[in-house]
Amino acid sequence: MERAQERTQTDPAAGAALELLVHGVGGATPEKMLNDPRTVRITGDDTAAMYRREDDVNAEAVDAAAGGPADRPVPEAYVWSNLTSGNGTRALWLLLLPFMVVNLAHWMRPATLERTRTVRLYGLLVRLTGLTLTVLLVAAACEVALDLTAWQCAGTRACAERHSWLGFLSPAVSDNGWWSLPGRRLALAALVPTALTVLLWYLSHRTWRAYESQEPPSGRTEPQDAPGHTALGRPGFWYGRRLVARLRAAHTAAGLLTVAAAVGTAAAREDRSPGGPALLDGLGWLLEAALAAGALATVWVVCRRGRSEHRLDRRLDAHLVRRLPLAALTLLALTFVYAGWERPAWRSAGRLPGDVTFGGIALLQGGLVIALAVVASTLYRGSRSDPEGRAALRGLGGPAVAMLACALGGLMSGGVSQRVSDWLDGTGTYLAGPPVLLTWQASVIPALLIVLLALCALLAREALRLARAERVAVAHEYGADPGDPARTQRIARARAMATLTDRAPLLVAVTSTTTLLLGAGALVGAFATGRTPDRAAEAAHPFVHGAAQTGQALGSWLIGLGFILFVTWGRRAYKDASARRTIGILWDVGTFWPRAAHPFSPPCYAERAVPDLTWRMATWTRATGGRLVISGHSQGSVLAAAAAWQLSPADRSRVALLTYGSPIERLYGRWFPAHFGPAALNALHEDIDCWRNLHRPTDPIGGPVRLSGDDCGPEVDRAALADPLAYGRTEAHPLPSPILGHSDYQADPAFAQERERLLSRLHKEVPAQRAKADDQQRVKADDQR
Fold first, then answer.
1. C-alpha–C-alpha distance, residues 299 and 127, integer Å
2. How far apart are CA 283 and CA 289, in angstroms?
3. CA gap 661, 693 in Å, rounded
4. For residue 542, pLDDT beyond 70
5. What are phi and psi of 650, to 5 degrees?
6. Rounded CA gap, 606 and 334, in Å?
7. Is the pTM value of this prediction over 0.85?
């Protein structure tokens, strides 16, 4: 049951207690979170909202009438699942995965309080890497539409006759019809990558308005660059409108210029041939100069500035945002006119010069990743914020993930090209096929899979060894000797499998390093031989030739199959709850961060969720002066911490944090040390009233926060919870207890104990004078600004 409620706090219950529940990966219904089928939406919309039990809608007024707060806290659930797992069409966002991954690399830089210029250089290199991915995607669309379809297939009689829908583009089939000239065919086919670019622009603009255009509360007075305070507490962190708009304009222009270059350079190359018309030759040079100027302007926009987190980015560079894409679109239209000019002697043969394009992109991406690794290593060596060496890959997580983004982009572009080529030329006798480099890149995939399979075998062996060791620990902890061997083995296996999460840095390191080396080998092989691997190895030993043929054939099928499975698995993930839970944590981590490196990545749900939670906590504590426990499970704990960082110091001191199954240190602290490192988590521990964290040894996602107790409160982590609650049948558990792993933390008695402990530590009543002083301080700070 849902209905909007408008409530005024004219006579609030001083000291009322509120428990704000935030769910995690996979979502949850308000009925399940509140353990009541009768729930009411008190604020929010169909995308994200706050819910209460029907009996608790006016709990503050009832408490005030009774003369004081109730003994129990009022539970309130924040449901944000529609931000990430709405209808099944959002599976199409998986096609933007390379953009999301490179955006992640931006946030993975090592923590440092100095070296501001080096930090800016790190962000610049990631933004440039993201720009190359946009160019790669549009170039792949050009390869399919322009080269394989309009140039090769339409220019070959047998292929055009086989695909009758291309007949009007074929000189032989259409008897030299108007559209059969190569330049006109290319101009018409270029509408496909142009439409793709416009679609990406539209989706980025639309999702910004739908998800990310939520302004957080302003007027905070704390020093934002104080040691230990993370950037997540800055006013403009969750509102980067200006940067997203600039990047959206630059990437749109880059896509349109890529299409213009694919069409215009083919025509200009024909005009430079002996006997070509001088006028068209001159126009070709002017066109290429204009394309180069547009490319330089686009790169300049990307390089010019990064995020302005110290303030809300409300301003837009209106002229730049509008004129840059419009200028690129105008240049593209002029290119269509130039390419469509009458050239009776022009014939299409062979391939368009795609090897140079894809080779240049691959070379540039490799150079950017290596430079990024050097910068990240410099930042890590100059920082002292990781004394225990918890940061993933010793600060090189960002470059490794950026390399994976480039590999994913190459995999998707190569997979589409290979499959379209096979579809157009089923016998493999009509067309020259995709660029040689794409074939080489596909051929190294079997080698990469062999390396990954070997690594997975080693990890499995380690997990089995650990499971054997855990059997002894399980028997000792539960006093089950000899016990039930099958039961003991299941518990030990669950614990061993949960540790595989901590092996993710090794998997990422091996994958990215192998990809870089194999990619470099493919690049050298393609440009050194100019032929596909099987033809380049014809004169080699029969074993080498056979291996080259096998790798090329197997790689071609694997790259296409992988792309198809990737899309279908993504579609299933939004229909099947179990599949969504499996990959949900990775997807939710990727879309948690704002779009700082790539504007076409999937929208950032936290730019809606964090302001929602911040506004709710701030308004409630100021209106009631009461006690508030924000209770976050899994990804909800990360949202809770991010929202607490956004509160003013006075509001933050009235809040207690309860996290369970939390990846805040195990995942975020290791991979994003600049924002969730030990210094940032310690600062949060000091600023809020108290923080307690629950975790289990069988949980593959959540883990300890690793903060010790001090003057600011007790130790954060409670001892690891028993899972299952009972080994066998007992009076308290007459039926076998399940192994819960990452779910149902509230079923453990420790949850209620820790919640009561937090409530008892919070001030029972906040004096009105303190709230009034805080308000006066905020007004004074606003006046100073």
1. 10
2. 10
3. 8
4. yes
5. -65, -45
6. 42
7. yes
